[in-house]
Design brief:
- About 40% of the residues lie in helices and about 25% in strands.
- The protein is globular.
- Helix 1 (about 10-25) links the parallel strand 1 (about 5) and strand 2 (about 25-35).
- It has about 500 residues and is of the alpha+beta class.
- Helix 4 runs antiparallel to helix 5 (about 105-115).
- The strands form six sheets. The protein has an eight-stranded antiparallel sheet with strand order 13-12-9-10-11-14-21-19, with helices on both faces.
- It has helices spanning about 10-25, 40-45, 65-75, 90-95, 105-115, 115-125, 140-150, 175-190, 250-265, 295-305, 305-315, 395-410, 420-425, 430, 440-445, 455-475, 480-505; strands at about 5, 25-35, 45-50, 75-80, 100, 155-160, 170, 195-200, 205-215, 220-230, 235-240, 270-275, 285-290, 330-340, 340, 350, 350-355, 355-360, 365-370, 375, 385-390, 410.
- The longest helix is centred in the last third of the chain and has 24 residues, at about 480-505.
- It binds ligand MV4.
- Ligand MV4 binds near residues 131, 155, 201, 276 and 286.
């Protein structure tokens, strides 16, 4: 095992990784920017070094400086976390050239998956099912031919994109030219790469992804799926494992495809294959994320595996100590991403001093946090404060546990999206797992949230009401008439809200 690992990141993921290092007897090295001197990851690490000024370019993206620190302190490996340099193949190569192990996949696999067209061509060759469309960059004229072939509506996408950037929906041929040109100039501006391709549009898909893990001896396993359809502006907000619409057979088929995709890419370490899933439960390869993801804890809770421990073991050259048939899924996990942002004001970032922090705990509750009471959240980075993750025997129990944990959670001094989670967790469509990637936008727009079903509104309303009543009873943990359970809960919440606001005033 490594003796010392540098963590090229900040916030909750830096804390997450250094905890694994501590558990494995590995010394951890934190790096930080000027505004992160007092950050949690700095105080928890065995050593910490200043990188430079706040702007990421001069700190957490400063490759020469990070390598210099690693060499000076004798770190044998670098864990990149997520974001920042985690999917940068140049950085992974620079690490190798400096004699430092990059804890992640080989640079070649990162490059392949970084180009959506190259990835599509490789995945198509490997027999991975994907959305009909092109597997190479197209001219405007070729895009028109491809769109006619697969049928409108289509998506115009940037090959260098991902996560929704440089993407346009085109409903008919008359819109093609302007959408193509807008997407191309956006892609040139954002990625310095104007390559564009075309896919058939999948309406109201779910986003479901498969976690894979490969060692450096050719073994690859899948660790089940994560349901990630609750998103806003291509940012995930809630994730869960398993997905309510994936049964054992579908899981086996998606898993086999994901393993095939990873093997054909020469992939090692932790990675994720993203799929779009249509209303008929057909799944299509979307892209591969070549990093440890934010939402990895839900997979950890249902598999009982520690993905960061495994990443370190794999990077050291160890063989996976278990086979596919040894991987079991137990219970249900849900994660909420807690952000310093104001849901009342268009989710505007709300950094500042955390004057009061009351964190949830108790049975089945995990909180991966990068903050503490009294710390000032800087405005220079992503405003995610923590991830609240719960685990329970089934989905209903996990939702009840999450509602309970959310009620225990209080952050004073800054605005957070905590109230949004209470709304989502009580929404009848979320409760019934009738979700797709448009759920949250519809909820926030105040529209009817359910898309599918089509059995008549009255029936949907009746089923929703019944489910809501049933879960209200469950989350209060006692028998009796559902309506009164709801009332009692409303009273309790009002009382807690008052207590909380008074708590803040007494600060
Ligand atoms: C799509 C799609 C429908 N059809 N591609 C958005 C982010 C990027 N990674 C791919 N995205 C989509 N690609 C086809 N052919 C719908 C989306 C999409 C989406 C995908 C996953 C999660 C949330 C989403 C929200 C809006 C659109």
């Amino acid at each position: 095992m490594f003796k010392k690992v540098l963590i090229a990141n900040r916030g909750e993921i830096a804390v997450r990784v250094l905890r694994a290092c501590r558990e494995m007897g590995v010394a951890s090295v934190a790096v930080f920017s000027d505004v992160d001197r007092a950050a949690l990851h700095v105080s928890k690490a065995d050593e910490a070094y200043l990188l430079g000024p706040a702007p990421a370019r001069e700190s957490y993206l400063n490759v020469p400086k990070i390598l210099e620190v690693a060499q000076r302190c004798g770190a044998e490996a670098i864990h990149p976390g997520y974001g920042f340099l985690s999917e940068n193949a140049h950085f992974a190569r620079a690490c190798a050239e400096a004699g430092i192990k990059f804890i992640g996949p080989p640079p070649s696999a990162m490059e392949l998956m970084g180009s959506k067209t190259r990835a599509r061509a490789a995945m198509q060759a490997a027999g991975v099912p994907m959305v009909p469309g092109s597997a190479r960059g197209l001219s405007l004229a070729e895009a028109g031919e491809m769109a006619a072939k697969v049928g409108y509506p289509v998506m115009i996408k940037a090959a260098a994109g991902g996560g929704g950037k440089g993407m346009r929906l085109v409903s008919n041929p008359s819109e093609l030219k302007s959408s193509f040109e807008t997407a191309q100039s956006e892609a040139l501006r954002s990625f310095n790469d104007g390559e564009i391709y075309v896919e058939k549009f999948i309406a109201n898909p779910r986003h479901i992804e498969i976690q894979v893990l490969g060692d450096e001896h050719g073994n690859v396993v899948y660790l089940g799926e994560r349901e990630c359809s609750i998103q806003r502006r291509h940012q995930k907000v809630i994730e869960e494992a398993p997905s309510a619409i994936v049964d054992e057979d579908m899981r086996r088929r998606m898993g086999a495809v994901a393993v095939q995709a990873a093997k054909s890419a020469g992939y090692t370490n932790a990675g994720t294959i993203e799929f779009l899933v249509d209303a008929a439960r057909n799944f299509y390869f979307l892209e591969m994320n070549t990093r440890l993801q934010v939402e990895h804890p839900v997979t950890e809770l249902v598999t009982g595996l520690d993905l960061v421990h495994l990443q370190l073991r794999i990077a050291c050259g160890e063989k996976l100590a278990f086979r596919q048939e040894d991987v079991g899924l137990r219970g249900h996990a849900i994660e909420c991403r807690i952000y310093a942002e104001d849901p009342e004001n268009n989710f505007f970032p709300s950094p500042g001093k955390i004057s009061k922090l009351m964190r949830p705990s108790g049975p089945g509750v995990r909180e991966d946090s990068g903050v503490y009471e009294g710390w000032t959240v800087p405005l220079d980075y992503d405003p995610m404060l923590s991830k609240l993750i719960v685990h329970a025997p089934d989905r209903a129990a996990a939702m009840a546990r999450m509602r309970r944990a959310l009620d225990e959670y209080f952050v004073g001094g800054i605005k957070t999206n905590l109230p949004l989670f209470r709304r989502i967790l009580e929404h009848p469509d979320f409760v019934a797992a009738r979700i797709d990637t448009g759920f949250l936008d519809r909820l926030l727009a105040g529209k009817h949230v359910s898309t599918g079903g089509a059995n008549g509104l009255a029936e949907i309303a009746a089923v929703s009401a019944a489910l809501f009543a049933a879960t209200a009873q469950q989350r209060n943990g006692h028998q009796g008439n559902a309506a009164s359970a709801v009332d009692r809960r409303a009273d309790a919440s009002a009382w807690k809200r008052t207590a909380r606001s008074e708590g803040v005033r007494s600060e």
